[in-house]
Amino acid sequence: MSSKWLDISIVNCPCLTSLENSLLDQKQYLRAFHDVNISNCVHVETVPLTFEQMNRLRKLCLEDCPKLRMPRDSRNKLLPSSLGCLHMCDSGDLELPILGSMQQLTNLSFMELRFCSNLVSLPSVDVFQSLKSLRSIRICRCENLSSLGGLGSAPSLSCIFGCSCLAEARSSAMPGASASEDDSLVVSRNSQQIDRLEIDVPSLLLVEPLKSLCQTQKLYIEDASKTERLPEQWLLQNHSSIQYLMIHKAESLESLPLSMQDLSSLEQLNLFGAGQLRSLPNFPSSLQYLGIDECDSELEEKSRENGNPEWNKISHIPRVRIGNSYFILGKECSKKTYKTLRYKDYNALVSWVNQPEDNGNGVESVLHWWQKPRCLGRITS
Question: What InterPro entries is this protein classified in (predicted)?
Fold first, then answer.
């Protein structure tokens, strides 16, 4: 048995109240456990988890078991260093003991915490510094979470936060703070590399350690419905690293920062529901795609007028969609042509732009000409 792995899955057992004397309680099997999943067992209270003997455990999932209790003899015992993935969702009284026993999880690469109502703060700096392999963390709907603890000391991460209560706690502690304000006085910059940061509301960018980030590559904001302008100072802090920016529910967004042109690495900008946006700023030369969905009709019309200031701001961008209008390097095109050219290289786009008109066959003939072998130079006899 010692050479084999065991995956344990106990799911959808509404009448189950205890797992004592189960396979989880058999010492001869503990060292073989690889994946333990206990989910949707709403009445289970007791689960024997002798972590120090589960030295092959790679994944632990405790989900929708709100009555779970940690046995007394299991308290203050560390999770096995072999653990690579940790998922917890509404896990009763096990939430805090589990998070309190994360020291030295050098193989932990992914952690997900959802609906953990007992969670007030993430682990300390010392704990996050010990998580050498952590690359992704997802935290959603933890209603009492008021601090991200030592998250800022973790290595490079992809982070997803769906806990607006964090921003509310910050606002309560600092009356007068708002999501649209620029907190220009950032005492220190966090050198932590964030591959992907996904947040539900922009005000989370005012919460440490997110506030001090300066090496974020991708930012997704799920709900900007109460935001009139983007957090300019935060964007400037990340001007050399931010590549992708996506904003959903931007119905209150009235303008984009003039400093957008300083985001020297920005390649894609997507705005959804930006009906109040009346004008555009200048964009950086790095921008490859601009998408503005459900925008103001007047802005869309101005963007279609060759020579209009709004058109001038988008004419250098390879691919643009504003409302129902499509552009390739400033030249308006049909949706069909846009899709055809969507993944073509820059030279192919330039060739199409230099054609006299956009028609169903024109784009295909241009691409055919560009892709066929051609002789370079002149042949002389």
Answer: LRR_dom_sf
